[in-house]
Design goal:
globular; seven-stranded antiparallel β-sheet; 318 residues; 10 helices; D-amino Acid Aminotransferase, Chain A, domain 1; 23% strand; four-stranded antiparallel β-sheet; 14 strands
């Protein structure tokens, strides 16, 4: 299974691969109420509803919403081992600044490059101006605590914290993948920038397939770690948090991005109302048959989070 990969249009169709038009019309447009998009597109609003739903998220250190507040950014990052500054309305990993080490008032990115406090303030100013936001609208900067890398992923990611994308449909965790940062992706878990996508078995949390730039690989390009050995710890808890985002957000077709903290375990990083389709390539199989099976269920709205997870484990094993 680990070497499985799509090779032709007929193969894609045979394996139930969903295309963008079908995703947009049959799932995003049908199951995601437009009025709820602001809760998902705005990372700050997502954190607020997550807190109310008891869904764990990275610590919120501060919010900068006006230019006059930029000069006081040090107040939010003082006495921390590291931090992340991101645009509330950013997408695709754009505008995220990660500082993993602070020494003698000097700040360092995951790749070891130094960033000055002036650089940090300039980055916040760019965020406020909407340089990274959806549609270029004015934004706010969210300052979060640094996630402590879980030791279970040593060697599987390069200069960055990996995350787990789970597609949740009507509350069912239908497909998952792990995104591993690389030198090419500049330490970010972004597949378009060169991160590795690893398909994850819903039943076990184990790797089943891996790709980089849509091409199959067996070892991490920077660490040479064998990707087939990857297994996500605390998988049950992660699936529970991801699945419960259905009730939390009201979105029927959702991408949940989860991370694993060494001390706090699984937590929600952000939600995506328009999750991409590359997860199918990472898994080596199409998502459409899984979605259609759930659509045929007449009592899905009566099922608990635990029951929905059990259903997926029974029917979507790899």
């Amino acid at each position: 299974m680990f070497s499985k990969f799509f090779s032709s249009p007929s193969s894609l169709k045979k394996q139930g691969v969903m295309g963008m038009n079908q995703r947009n019309s049959s799932y995003i447009g049908r199951y995601n109420p437009r009025k709820l998009y602001p809760l998902v597109d705005n990372k700050l609003k997502t954190k607020i509803i997550a807190k109310k739903a008891n869904v764990t998220t990275p610590a919120l250190l501060g919010v900068i919403s006006m230019q006059v507040e930029v000069e006081h950014v040090e107040n939010y990052i003082y006495n921390t081992p590291g931090f992340v500054i991101k645009p509330a309305k950013g997408s695709g990993g754009k505008g995220i600044l990660v500082i993993t080490k602070i020494e003698n008032n000097r700040y360092y990115k995951p790749n070891g490059n130094e960033v000055s406090i002036s650089d940090i303030k300039r980055h916040v100013t760019d965020i406020l101006a909407g340089l990274f936001s959806l549609g270029g609208s004015a934004d706010v900067a969210v300052v979060e605590g640094l996630i402590q890398f879980d030791n279970a992923f040593d060697g599987f990611s390069f200069e960055g914290v990996p995350d787990v994308r789970v597609i949740v449909f009507k509350g069912f965790p239908v497909m998952a993948m792990m995104r591993l940062s690389t030198a090419a992706s500049d330490g970010k878990a972004n597949l378009h920038q060169g991160a590795v996508g690893v398909g994850i078995d819903i039943t076990t949390g184990k790797a089943i397939n891996a790709v980089q730039f849509d091409k199959p690989i067996k070892h991490h390009p920077d660490t040479n770690k064998e990707l087939a050995l990857l297994q996500v710890p605390k998988w049950e808890r992660l699936l529970y948090l991801a699945s419960s985002c259905y009730e939390m957000s009201g979105m029927g077709y959702l991408g949940t991005d989860m991370v694993l903290d060494r001390d706090l375990g699984p937590m929600l990083l952000e939600l995506n109302a328009r999750p991409g389709l590359a997860i199918q390539i990472a898994n080596g199989q199409g998502i459409l048959p899984r979605l259609q099976l759930i659509e045929r269920l007449s009592h899905s709205h009566e099922m608990s989070v635990e029951e929905r997870i059990s259903f997926c484990k029974k029917h979507f094993y790899s």
